[in-house]
């Protein structure tokens, strides 16, 4: 490659020509002829051509010097949309180019500059996959277009068919909320109240008053009651019964019977008067009756009750407000330009790349997960913040997408973007839970709708019996109307699913993700909670608190061997040992007698978590005093029992405090390293709350029993399972369950196998493992107090579901019995029907605003299911509604 200016200018011109041949417009064509090539090199960076981009990595041959590499980089960067970096030391080039630019164009440019280039294997593979993807997209596009044409042809030639699949949504079974308007209620009140008043007050009746009432009732039972008639028709078209079908049938029946009675009996006479009665038996005197007051009164009360219902708002507002996607569309990013200078630019959130430095101003929302690299500010972490939602972050503090900046501008280095952020994982978890809950809601709604045809059957049978016994048609119709109006399928439909839905949303708003509604029932039954010691009860980086060497051993050498064996491990204990070893080595501890570096072979880890490898250690001959390096087998392990340590000094050190690790080589224990961390400040309070809730708390640890017992006593945990190796923890959890306990296991990503075998697996302190199949509950917060809070929540939800079920079933049974016996007036039957549904909604709504952090709330209001009747209800009525 030549360094002459004419050759460089000719290469630049060829680059522009190649760019135009590729269909790209050169950004600096207007500058052609303005001077030499150096002017273009000092001009501002080109704007990247819009559209998708791709990356290439090239091997280069023929680079003579770093200057030649700089010239080649300048030539490549002149192509519009291309960003290139050429490294002379490795003879490689990294190029980002528009997807429409063929790599052959870039290869030709480099060849004209005197450099041979070929793509790496990874680049060739990505290029082939991209071409295959584009071809598949073209075929899929043609296939979709063909399907659309065929569908249009079938729709134009064949009659429209409606789907009657059983999986169709059950929302049609609810009366459309949009149709229940204040205007309908006002018209119903203005026209219907006079009808009710005249019919129940005989002194207000005059000649032909019943015909005036009939005229006033027509718009009430047609236009005002149209939402209920529409829901009934929609359900019948799908082979199902809408929840308000019985009320719609009662309105129509009351109006039609009154019209027929007025046309063919003396009820239509001008001088006929109605004597009010409050039971069905009153109508057996042969005086006849009209039920226009029932038609109008039921319509008014139904409209009023449905207007006040809060089902739609309660089912969605909490989840939407707590997990809202960040509203910002653009973000300020700091990237180095081609000359290595940092430049600020505005990009869309979708263009953020891992490693970018983004600036989040005051009141801005963090769009990606990352780490603060500049600035200090107070932030609102939302559900992720735990007890202290408003925290101060500084350099090296982690931040997550969805966090709002309340202070000065923060500079954040991006670590996870898009679907990999914790906020996206949370939203996926919530979406999956909502889909599961929606299926349960469909089952509950369809099951509740089965009450409607049974109500029609019971009403028909009651009318037939009353007609046979009293020979009074009015009495028979009154009993049938009372049955149809009093049944409350809506109360049955809402009795379980509304409370479960609100429980899932409330838990998510508090930083706890529940997998589905079944998790609520399982967690409410838990009577034993097992905490894994590390990652749950403690926080902060672990630190080495002491090194005790056996007699005649160097403690610095003991630490150096442990650091060499733990170097590649990511466990918190291993990182603490490596950090302490590095600090001691940098400080020159041990002098010349301890090697600065130890050559170590491949480290193996057995089922007990023992690290072992061959290490080159200095060995001093006792006779000659000569020191030589020999290959010895060394190991780092945790003692499970003090009997494993024969040296009394080492045994005392193992129980002296912190987590003990024994370092040995040649099969002899040479020293003990104590590592400790800090107990979370709310651990003792949270454990005490769990114990007050009749939940046995257990800690499982790998430490010896005296060490684990000391820590458990500090926190207040009642049971300790000590000396459990990592490979045996899952079996230990399973054995606790085998003893009859309902177990919830709380741990981090290091004990996922334990979470899988427990009745309820609770994942804590692992933001990058939210998308996993092992855990049933994910705690986004780091505080232990979130555990008694969520237990109190699910117990309250379960108790609400139980009492809602009893209320719904009990009311319907009592209402039907009173209606069949004629003791319930049809006009008044609407009131208890509406009150039952509104009472269930009110009881469920308490879940959204109850304070579960209050100690009295956490402890009280829970009794396990006891008694044959309550046990039968929990095992039969509840699955009928939710499974």
TrEMBL record:
It is a multi-pass membrane protein. Residues 157-168 have a biased composition (Polar residues). GO terms for biological process: copper ion homeostasis. It is found in: Cell membrane. It holds the Pfam family E1-E2_ATPase. The keyword Transmembrane helix applies. InterPro entries: ATPase_P-typ_cyto_dom_N, ATPase_P-typ_TM_dom_sf, ATPase_P-typ_transduc_dom_A_sf, ATPase_P-type_domA, HAD-like_sf, HAD_sf, HMA_dom_sf, P_typ_ATPase. GO terms for molecular function: ATP binding; ATP hydrolysis activity; copper ion binding; P-type divalent copper transporter activity. Residues 329-428 form the P-type ATPase A domain. GO terms for cellular component: plasma membrane. Its EC number is 3.6.3.54. The keyword 4Fe-4S does not apply. Residues 136-146 have a biased composition (Basic residues). The chain crosses the membrane at residues 185-203, 209-228, 249-268, 288-308, 450-469, 475-500, 805-828. Its main location: membrane. Residues 147-156 have a biased composition (Basic and acidic residues). Keywords: Hydrolase, Membrane, Metal-binding, Translocase, Transmembrane, Transmembrane helix. Residues 20-49, 134-168 are annotated as: Disordered. NCBIfam families: ATPase_P-type. This is ATPase, P-type (Transporting), HAD superfamily, subfamily IC. It comes from Corynebacterium variabile.
């Amino acid at each position: 490659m030549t360094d002459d200016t004419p050759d460089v200018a000719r290469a630049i011109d060829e680059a522009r020509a190649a760019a135009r041949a590729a269909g790209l417009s050169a950004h600096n064509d207007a500058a052609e002829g303005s001077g030499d090539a150096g002017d273009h090199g000092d001009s501002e960076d080109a704007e990247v051509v819009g559209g998708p981009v791709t990356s290439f990595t090239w091997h280069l041959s023929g680079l003579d010097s770093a200057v030649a590499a700089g010239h080649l980089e300048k030539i490549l960067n002149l192509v519009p949309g291309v960003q290139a970096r050429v490294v002379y030391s490795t003879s490689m080039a990294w190029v980002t180019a528009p997807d429409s630019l063929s790599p052959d164009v870039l290869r030709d440019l480099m060849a004209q500059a005197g450099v041979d280039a070929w793509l790496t294997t990874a680049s060739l593979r990505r290029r082939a996959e991209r071409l295959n993807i584009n071809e598949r997209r073209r075929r899929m596009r043609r296939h979709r277009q063909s399907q659309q044409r065929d569908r249009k042809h079938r729709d134009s030639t064949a009659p429209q068919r409606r789907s009657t699949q059983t999986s169709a949504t059950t929302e049609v079974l609810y009366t459309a909320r949009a149709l229940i308007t204040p205007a309908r209620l006002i018209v119903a009140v203005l026209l219907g109240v006079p009808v009710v008043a005249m019919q129940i007050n005989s002194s207000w009746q005059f000649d032909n008053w019943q015909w005036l009432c009939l005229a006033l009732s027509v718009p009430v039972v047609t236009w005002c009651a149209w939402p209920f008639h529409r829901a009934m028709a929609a359900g019948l078209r799908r082979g199902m019964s809408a929840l308000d079908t019985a009320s719609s049938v009662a309105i129509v029946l009351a109006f039609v019977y009154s019209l027929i009675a007025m046309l063919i009996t003396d009820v239509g006479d001008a001088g006929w008067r109605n004597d009010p009665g409050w039971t069905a038996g009153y109508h057996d005197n042969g005086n006849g009756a009209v039920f226009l007051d029932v038609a109008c009164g039921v319509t008014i009360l139904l409209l009023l009750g449905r207007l006040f219902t809060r089902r739609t708002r309660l089912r969605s507002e909490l989840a939407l407000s707590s997990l809202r996607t960040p509203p910002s569309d653009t973000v300020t990013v700091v990237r180095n330009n081609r000359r290595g200078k940092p430049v600020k630019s505005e990009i869309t959130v979708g263009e953020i790349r891992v490693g970018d430095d983004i600036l989040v101003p005051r009141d801005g929302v963090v769009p990606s997960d990352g780490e603060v690299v500049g600035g200090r500010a107070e932030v609102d972490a939302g559900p992720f913040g735990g007890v202290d939602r408003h925290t101060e972050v500084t350099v090296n503090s982690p931040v997550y997408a969805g966090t709002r900046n309340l202070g000065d501008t923060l500079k954040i280095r991006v670590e996870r973007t898009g679907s990999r952020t914790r906020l996206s994982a949370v939203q996926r978890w919530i979406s999956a839970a909502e889909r599961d809950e929606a299926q349960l809601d469909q089952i509950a709604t369809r099951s509740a709708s089965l009450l409607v045809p049974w109500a029609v059957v019971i009403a028909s049978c009651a009318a037939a019996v009353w007609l046979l016994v009293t020979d009074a048609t009015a009495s028979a119709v009154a009993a049938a109307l009372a049955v149809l109006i009093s049944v409350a399928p809506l109360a049955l439909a809402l009795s379980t699913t509304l409370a479960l839905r609100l429980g899932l949303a409330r838990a998510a708003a508090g930083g706890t993700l529940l997998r589905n509604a079944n998790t609520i029932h399982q967690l409410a039954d838990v009577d034993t909670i097992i905490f894994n010691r590390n990652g749950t009860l403690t926080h902060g980086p672990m630190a080495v608190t002491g090194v005790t060497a056996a007699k005649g051993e160097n403690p610095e050498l003991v630490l150096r061997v442990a650091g060499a064996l733990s170097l590649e491990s990511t466990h918190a204990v291993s990182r603490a040992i490596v950090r302490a070893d590095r600090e001691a080595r940098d400080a020159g501890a041990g002098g010349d007698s301890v090697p600065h570096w130890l050559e170590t072979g491949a480290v193996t880890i057995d089922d007990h978590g023992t690290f072992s490898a061959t290490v080159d250690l200095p060995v001093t001959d006792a006779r000659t005093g000569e020191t030589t390096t020999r290959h010895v087998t060394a190991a780092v392990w945790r003692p499970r029992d003090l009997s494993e340590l024969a040296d009394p000094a080492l045994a005392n050190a193992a129980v002296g405090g912190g987590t003990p690790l024994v370092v040995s080589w040649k099969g002899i224990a040479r020293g003990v390293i104590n590592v400790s961390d800090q107990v979370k400040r709310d651990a003792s309070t949270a454990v005490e709350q769990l114990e007050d809730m009749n939940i046995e708390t257990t800690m499982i640890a790998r430490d010896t029993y005296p060490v684990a017992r000391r820590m458990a006593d500090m926190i207040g945990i009642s049971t300790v399972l000590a000396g459990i190796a990592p490979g045996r923890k899952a079996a230990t959890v399973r054995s606790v369950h085998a003893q009859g306990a309902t177990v919830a296991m709380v741990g981090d990503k290091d004990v996922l196998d334990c979470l899988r075998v427990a009745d309820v697996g609770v994942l804590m302190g692992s933001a990058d493992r939210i998308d996993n199949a092992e855990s049933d509950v994910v705690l986004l917060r780091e505080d232990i107090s979130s555990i008694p809070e969520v237990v109190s929540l699910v117990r309250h939800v379960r108790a609400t579901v139980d009492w809602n079920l009893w209320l719904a079933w009990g009311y319907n049974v009592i209402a039907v019995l009173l209606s069949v016996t004629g003791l319930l007036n049809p006009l008044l039957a609407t009131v208890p029907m509406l009150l039952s549904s509104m009472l269930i909604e009110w009881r469920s709504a308490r879940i959204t605003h109850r304070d579960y952090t209050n100690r009295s709330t956490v402890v009280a209001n829970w009794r396990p299911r006891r008694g044959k009747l309550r046990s039968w209800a929990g095992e039969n009525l509840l699955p009928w509604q939710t499974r």
